[in-house]
Amino acid sequence: MQQVKYIFNRILQMFPVLIVISFIVFGSMRLIPGDPAVKMLGDKATEETLAALRAKMGLDKPFLVQYLYYLKQTAKLDFGNSIYLKQSVLSLFLEKSVVTVSLTVLTAFFSVLISFPLGFYAGIHGDGRFGRLVSSLSLIFTSVPIFWLGLLMLMLLALRFPVFPVGGWGTSFMEHLHSLILPSFVGSLSTMTLIIRNIQASVVNVLKKDYVDFAYSKGLSARKVTSGYIMRNVLVSTVTLLSIRITGLLGGSVVIESVFALPGIGSLLLTGVLSRDYTLVQGLVFLFGVIVLVINLLTDISYSFLDPRVTLK
Amino acid sequence: MSEILLEVKNLRTYFKSGRDKVYAVDGVNFTVEKGEVFGLIGESGCGKSATCRSIIGLIHPPAKIESGEVIYKGRDIAGLSGREWEEIRGKEIGMIFQEPMDTLNPVMKIKDQICDAISDAMTDEEKTRKAAEILRTVGIASPEKRMEAFPHEYSGGMRQRAMIAIALAAKPSLLLADEPTTALDVTIQTQIIKLLSDLKKAMGMSMILVTHDLGVAAQTCDRVAVMYAGNIMETADIYTIFDSPSHPYTCGLMMSLPKTGQKNKKLTPIKGNPPNLSDKPKGCPFSPRCDFSDSLCVKGLPEMAEISTGHFSRCLRPEVLSGKAGVTGCDSR
């Protein structure tokens, strides 16, 4: 019951934040130099036709009036039509989000799958050669730029040894999956190394705690102590990091999707920016904001399950 | 003569610091009899806790037990494997720690932490019933409800009780209590000490009580060993230690204690600081701070000498304190 009430309150709290986001998005779009009417009609348009279009689009109205109209439409989930692609922004977003969501989920999956065991092992055997090797490798991969690594992997695993497609999305489920493996792996590297180092440090820290020794002093097996006492306490800090990284992955999808030519939201956003399609950019940035808020909410909720000291109030 | 439960022989445990080995426990010998409360007393950093942890095998790298035997019920348990320890820990030897908040797993219900320690042969229901029963024994009211809580929802005293309940869940024959009352305020301290004494009697177990609090030792222990810089300096039963301490260090400890009924008398602290273990003084480690030391004292570590039956002191000149030499030494009485 308390849980439900908390979630409800949190959702209510999201609305003021959304309004602030919408204002920032709308305002910053207006700050960008350039006239959308000129963009739409081209350099050769006459002053009269430009003025007519501005009047039609409401661009001659004061800023606040424009903003309130925008807010009203946003509340109705109407983000307008893309100027360049001539399609509703929401339907474009929903269509492309399949790619980006799959990419993000697979990326998070790779990160967790590889970083958790490595991080734990490196933490428990922290002073050994392996632990040190893991820390140095993590540091290297955290610092390597992702687009460079992506291109390198493409050259190796798509051109030299054509195991994976060079780019594209394919048509069947298996083709989708196949084309996502390389980008997700490349995308997961920076997250992976970050989580490995976080888990390693966290394990080293937890191992020093008296409750681990106390657990051993009860006569528990090493396996039980590791799963019930060490891992659970490590997870508390890792989940937060993972969620921050997942929101980061959404931003990173712009880079990954353009390197691997994936038709996701990241590519769409890039198209929008390059073609000065400001309704598209405006709508996408706002929707990104919504996703980040939702992920944060989910993190807070899962956090309260993992750490009983966090009370839901 | 009563039965010996635990015998520690020549135990040496070191911490590695750089290339040097620093001996926190430097050749410790003592025995614990069945049903006895044996106190290990001394200043912080003298090796009491390291001794305790060595007994139950919870010494982690870079620390290591270098040599010595820990004979429990006739069997040397120093250097057992992980599997073998599972049979000893909890069931034979239990341990409680100084800071209950750090000792209880913060993300696990008290109930689960007790059930963990109970034999796997029982069903979950039996375990839960047993857990409630143990919590009631340590003085937690309405345990069925309270055991569903997490450690942070308990008060300091309750946490300490819960920790004792967990350590005693599998009914060990020997309990190692490492400063169990240090983190508590005085009224709770008294309650916990009384609880431990009562439980010890009821369960017929032995206890090693590590403390730097002489008052706590006096209330609880049958026999004590005074440790200094990794060595035991004096062993005797609790009355002898307080009535006629024969090692200058023990004496110094007694004189730095306030007593009732002594008005306008200044406490006499021991001069100087405890030695740095990585640069331990030659010979008797207490000699640089001792009022009675002479050139003989720095030649080598004095042997334990029996002053009277069961009273041993690691001092070359025990007579200076017994008053025989006409020196006013220790007037702890």
Shape of chain A: globular
At the fold tier of CATH, the topology name of the largest domain in chain B is Rossmann fold
Q: What quaternary form is this?
A: heterodimer
Q: Please indicate the percent range of residues of chain A in DSSP E strands (runs of 2 or more).
A: under 5%
Mean pLDDT of chain A: 85
The number of helical runs of chain A is 12
Q: Give the helix level of chain B as a range of percent.
A: 25-40%
**Roughly how many Å apart are the termini of chain B?**
30 Å
Main sheet overview of chain A:
none
CATH homologous superfamily (4th level) name of the largest domain in chain B? P-loop containing nucleotide triphosphate hydrolases
The overall strand count of chain B is 12
Question: Can you describe what's shown?
Answer:
The complex is a heterodimer of chains A (313) and B (333). Chain A has twelve helices and no strands. Chain A is an all-alpha fold and 313 residues long. Chain A has two domains: 2-75, no CATH class; 97-306, MetI-like (MetI-like fold), CATH 1.10.3720.10. The mean pLDDT of chain A is 85. Chain B folds into two domains: 4-227, Rossmann fold; 229-322, no CATH class. Helix content of chain B is 30%, strand content 24%. Chain B is built from twelve helices and twelve strands. Chain B has an eight-stranded mixed sheet with strand order 6-7-8-3-9-10-12-11, sandwiched between helices. The two termini of chain B are 30 Å apart. The chains are: A mainly alpha (313), B alpha/beta (333).
Record keyword descriptors for this entry.
heterodimer; A: 313 residues; mainly alpha; MetI-like fold; 2 domains; B: 333 residues; Rossmann fold; 8-stranded mixed beta sheet; 4-stranded antiparallel beta sheet; 12 helices; 12 strands; globular
In short:
Chain A has helices at 2-31, 36-41, 47-57, 63-75, 89-124, 129-143, 146-160, 173-207, 210-217, 222-259, 265-274, 278-306. By secondary structure, chain A is an all-alpha fold. In chain A, helix 5 (89-124) runs antiparallel to helix 10 (222-259), helix 6 (129-143) packs across helix 8 and helix 10 packs antiparallel against helix 12 (278-306).
